[in-house]
Amino acid sequence: MKAKEVRNLSEQEIEKQLRDSRQELLNLRLRKQSGQVETPSQLRALRRDIARMETILIERAEGAAK
Asked: Fewer beta carbons below 10 Å: N end or C end of the chain?
């Protein structure tokens, strides 16, 4: 998910997407341990998406605090 797409979402939508992404990351990690992951690059992309969403939430919180 691109940063522009995340910025267009509401905070509740971002938080829901963040929970879903974290659950998917957990599932990918478990599948990786059992050798069932076809594309390990999914892990990296998912971690970056999570970081991107967390960053945007923090930016919004700081902007509201000013």
From this structure: C
What does the pLDDT look like over 5-28, one tens digit per residue?
999 999 999 999 999 999 999 999
What is the rounded CA–CA span in Å between residue 3 and residue 23?
20
Going along the chain from its start, the domains and CATH numbers come out as 3-65 (1.10.287.310)
CA nearest to 53, candidates 23, 24, 26, 15: 15
What are the pLDDT digits (tens) for 31-47?
Answer: 999 988 788 899 999 99
* Among the listed residues 39, 62, 40, 50, the one whose alpha carbon sits nearest the alpha carbon of residue 14: 50
